[in-house]
């Protein structure tokens, strides 16, 4: 390239990504490769930062940053998280992922990362469960019906072929529509519950993906069955402080992100000292890389807290970009 050559980058909009029709295996494999690179020390991840333009807007931006050496890509994702967007017919989370050549800083691509965020979140939930849930887990209790919730359930069912799926969310219309979509796509019945307790009590896997305006302990520790896996990842905590007291293992996606910042399901547990580097079993990437064990006994009760990894966005974004190139999708835009 000379100084006179134009600098081009690829732009993929939401329609482009939808046309790619990524399947479950492609999503899981891409995100797992990101975890493996993280576990091998081949990544750089910076804790996310936040921008709250005005508390009256009831939302904020998350900025995630990372580098995945085996992919030869650095990335920055900006995702808005606006609780009331449903009132305007908008997704609560909309995102852009920017991919760069880490050697030169040259822009490689800009992607609509809304679907990528949904898919990679579900993949982290499911991959965590692959290593941390009982292999015979058949009952799922899922709180929340936001966009990431669909991929949680879809990919968990892909791995465990669930016998019973229970769902609950704050708004009756959202949980009904959520269950109908799952039934249509998974080809099996989904139980819609009217309350948290009937959704999660006694389930083998409990996922808490609620959207609360402020922390509120709605998920009771006493409802968790021995041997269960609990995956809470709401922005605002919905769990009791006693939840970690019953856990044999607590696993996170990245301790650097979990130990800092104003948000997260176990924020109060970190601030109170209940969860610390010394009480933590490890990061999921360490388990994926084989450096630490996952579940070791059927009776272990385990908690997996994920905050969301820029590395997962980059890994899935790279897979999307490669498939789009094969299909001839996307636009080449001139940067300079």
UniProtKB/TrEMBL annotation:
Gene Ontology terms: cellular component: cytoplasm
Classification via Pfam families: OCD_Mu_crystall
Highest taxon of the lineage: Bacteria
PANTHER family found in the cross-reference section: KETIMINE REDUCTASE MU-CRYSTALLIN
Designated name of the protein: Ornithine cyclodeaminase
Lineage of producing organism: Bacteria, Bacillati, Actinomycetota, Actinomycetes, Kitasatosporales
């Amino acid at each position: 390239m000379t100084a006179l050559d134009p600098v081009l980058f690829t732009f993929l909009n939401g329609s482009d990504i939808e046309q790619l029709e990524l399947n479950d295996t492609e999503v899981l494999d891409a995100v797992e490769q990101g975890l493996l690179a993280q576990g091998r020390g081949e990544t750089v991840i910076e804790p996310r930062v936040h921008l709250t333009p005005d508390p009256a807007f009831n939302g904020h931006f998350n900025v995630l940053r990372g580098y995945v050496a085996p992919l030869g890509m650095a990335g920055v994702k900006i995702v808005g998280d606006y609780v009331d967007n449903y009132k305007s017919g908008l997704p609560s989370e909309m995102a852009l992922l920017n991919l760069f050549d880490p050697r030169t800083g040259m822009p490689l691509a800009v992607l609509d990362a809304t679907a990528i965020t949904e898919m990679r979140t579900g993949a982290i939930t499911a991959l965590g469960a692959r290593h941390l849930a009982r292999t015979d887990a058949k009952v799922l209790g899922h709180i929340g019906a936001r966009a990431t919730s669909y991929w949680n359930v879809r990919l968990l069912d892909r791995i465990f072929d669930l016998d019973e799926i229970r769902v609950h969310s704050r708004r009756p219309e959202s949980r009904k529509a959520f269950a109908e979509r799952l039934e249509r796509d998974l080809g099996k019945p989904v139980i819609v519950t009217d309350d948290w307790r009937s959704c999660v009590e006694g389930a083998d896997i409990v996922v808490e993906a609620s959207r609360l305006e402020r922390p509120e302990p709605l998920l009771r520790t006493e409802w968790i069955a021995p041997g269960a896996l609990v995956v809470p990842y709401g922005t605002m905590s919905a769990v009791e402080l006693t939840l970690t007291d019953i856990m044999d293992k607590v696993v996170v996606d990245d301790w650097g992100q979990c130990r800092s910042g104003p948000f997260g399901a176990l924020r109060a547990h970190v601030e109170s000292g209940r969860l610390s580097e010394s009480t933590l079993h490890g990061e999921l990437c360490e388990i994926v890389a084989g450096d630490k064990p996952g579940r070791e006994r059927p009776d272990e009760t385990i908690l997996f807290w994920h905050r969301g990894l820029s590395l997962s966005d980059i890994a899935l974004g790279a897979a999307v970009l490669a498939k789009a190139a094969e299909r001839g999708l996307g636009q080449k835009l001139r940067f300079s």
